[in-house]
């Protein structure tokens, strides 16, 4: 998963690929909980580009995108947001995988 450091890196990453963006923060316990599952999720979805954005580092971007709850998963295709997975509950590997699969189907119908 590529760590995004700047707004330009973010814009470039989502411009032409199907992308799953994870918005999180170092202090977020639920974010740390899902970290061990991310390599398997990424490996199971090679048709997506996976990026990680630290909410505190790119706060302006997160405010612009209305990313207030973390961890948040947002899918983009060709620079356009397709779907997002945000909930107050701790996310599981199965839920994240189901979200990505559902997002893949939404992208096919557009």
Automatic annotation (TrEMBL):
Pfam families to which the protein is assigned, alphabetical: Thioredoxin (PF00085)
Q: Which residues form the Thioredoxin domain?
A: 1-105
Q: Which PANTHER family match?
A: THIOREDOXIN (PTHR10438), THIOREDOXIN-1-RELATED (PTHR10438:SF468)
Q: What is this protein called?
A: Thioredoxin family protein
Q: From what organism does this protein derive? A: Brochothrix campestris FSL F6-1037
């Amino acid at each position: 998963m590529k760590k995004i450091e700047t707004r330009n890196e973010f814009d470039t990453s989502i411009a032409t690929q199907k992308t799953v963006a994870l918005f999180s923060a170092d202090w977020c316990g639920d974010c740390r909980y899902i970290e061990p599952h991310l390599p398997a999720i990424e490996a199971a979805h090679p048709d997506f580009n996976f990026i990680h954005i630290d909410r505190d580092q790119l706060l302006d971007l997160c405010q612009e995108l209305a990313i207030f709850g973390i961890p948040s998963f947002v899918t983009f295709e060709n620079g356009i947001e397709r779907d997002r997975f945000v909930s107050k509950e701790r996310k599981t590997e199965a839920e994240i995988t189901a979200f990505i699969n559902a997002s893949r189907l939404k992208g096919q119908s557009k």
